[in-house]
Specification:
This protein has 384 residues and is α/β, with parallel strands linked by helices. The chain has three domains: 189 residues, inorganic pyrophosphatase (n-terminal core); 72 residues, no CATH class; 99 residues, Diaminopimelate Epimerase, Chain A, domain 1 (Roll), CATH 3.10.310.30. It contains 14 helices and twelve strands. The strands form three sheets. It has a five-stranded parallel β-sheet with strand order 2-1-3-4-5, sandwiched between helices. Helix 6 crosses helix 7 and helix 8 crosses helix 11. The longest helix is centred in the last third of the chain and has 34 residues.
Length: 384
């Protein structure tokens, strides 16, 4: 008997039941490209089953932080009781999902991040990294995981066109989230890329028509497009990537793609400024086992990119954070061979929220604990 991803069929059955009995369905997705494409795939799958999504919510990382947030729950509680589905987040939102249950949501988590020492309160959890999950492949982007769920939900209604359409999004997300290009990921990327330039989505068409991208090959274009789709531009609570990838007309898509391209130039410049600032600081210090820096002027959404540049250059884990009044929010990147989630597990009692992948993660912490957190990390990585 073929092994299946744990709880995938269970999640599918519960969603089909909600569609049939016309229950309210809330989709709560991370605001990065993997989260956005996950939401689009599930939303369009439910629509193809004659169902309806009551509300979609993306947390604004600059204002709320990562994962399921109390602000998000307060906004959505008017819809209770409802089926509450988290995509590309939730596996580390212990307190928030406890609140979600208390206010009347039934929770399904579909996440691909590292499972921490315990599981949050949820009716159904789909995450191949759960200990009891025997599915051999563990490295899906979340969009890939949601695609697997949509296959189970749609069965014969998954037409070739629909499959192609979803796999285009999966390919973008898998590449953007830097998931390993092996096994099922590689198959989905190849299939998705094969039709990407002829996509029916006006948003994807508009991105490929950007003049400055004309001379690039397909993969170079994809990297450029992904960079634009991860730009922070929120309107009516919806990130630009969601608005562009679901745009229904060519003029609307063209206008937004143009705006993102302009913002992309500014983003590149800002990344350079923050990178330079961090390098100036570490130059004045004694070398450590990690880079750990923060500032109140840094944009949260850029921290991962800057940390990635620095971790490649200095071959060590990089922890960068935006310092706010009472708490700080951070992005982490590390070279291959490091695991940044493990040391955070050991410091979890002093972290408000944390999680992610071994080489790419995030955290939120009270400012009073920053110094001790840095000491803990330096000591942990020194021992390695």
């Amino acid at each position: 008997m073929k092994t299946e991803i744990k709880n995938l069929k269970k999640a599918s059955s519960r969603i089909l039941k909600a569609i049939k009995s016309q229950e309210k369905i809330i989709i709560y997705g991370d605001a990065d490209l993997d989260g956005v494409t996950s939401v689009i795939i599930l939303k369009e799958t439910i629509k193809n089953l004659a169902g309806q999504v009551t509300a979609i919510y993306f947390p604004d990382r600059e204002k709320e932080g990562y994962g399921v947030t109390e602000k998000g729950l307060n906004y959505l509680k008017k819809y209770t009781p409802a089926l509450f589905i988290t995509l590309d987040c939730g596996i580390g939102s212990f307190n928030e999902l406890k609140i979600a249950k208390e206010i009347g949501f039934e929770v399904i988590i579909v996440d691909h991040h590292e499972v921490l020492d315990k599981l949050p309160q949820a009716s159904i959890i789909v995450d191949p990294k759960q200990k009891e999950d025997e599915y051999p492949f563990k490295y899906f982007a979340n969009a890939g995981l949601v695609f697997k769920l949509s296959e189970v939900l749609l069965k014969k209604k998954m037409t070739d066109n629909l499959k192609r359409n979803f796999l285009e999004l999966v390919a973008l997300a898998t590449i953007a989230d830097m998931m390993p290009r092996v096994d099922e990921n590689e198959e989905m990327i190849i299939e998705g890329l094969s039709s990407l330039e002829s996509s029916w989505r006006p948003g994807i068409q508009a991105l490929f028509k950007i003049k400055d991208f004309e001379s690039f090959g397909l993969m170079a274009k994809v990297y450029k497009i992904n960079s634009l789709l991860n730009i922070r531009d929120v309107k009516n609570r919806m990130p630009a990537a969601f608005r562009l990838l679901t745009a229904s007309t060519k003029p609307e898509a063209k206008q937004l793609a143009k705006k993102l391209f302009k913002k992309g130039i500014e983003k590149k410049q800002r990344i350079g400024e923050i990178t330079e600032e961090v390098e100036e600081r570490i130059f004045k210090k004694s070398p450590d086992s990690i880079i750990f820096e923060g500032d109140s002027d840094w944009e949260v959404i850029l921290l991962g990119v800057v940390a990635s540049i620095l971790s490649k250059k200095y071959k060590k884990p990089v922890f960068l954070y935006k310092k706010q009044k009472t708490e700080s929010q951070g992005g982490i990147r590390a070279p291959s061979g490091f695991d940044v989630v493990e040391p955070m597990k050991k410091y979890s009692k002093n972290l408000m929220i944390f999680g992610g992948h071994k080489q790419a993660a995030g955290f939120r912490i009270k400012n009073e604990n920053l110094e001790k957190f840095e000491e803990h990390l330096i000591h942990y990585f020194k021992k390695l």
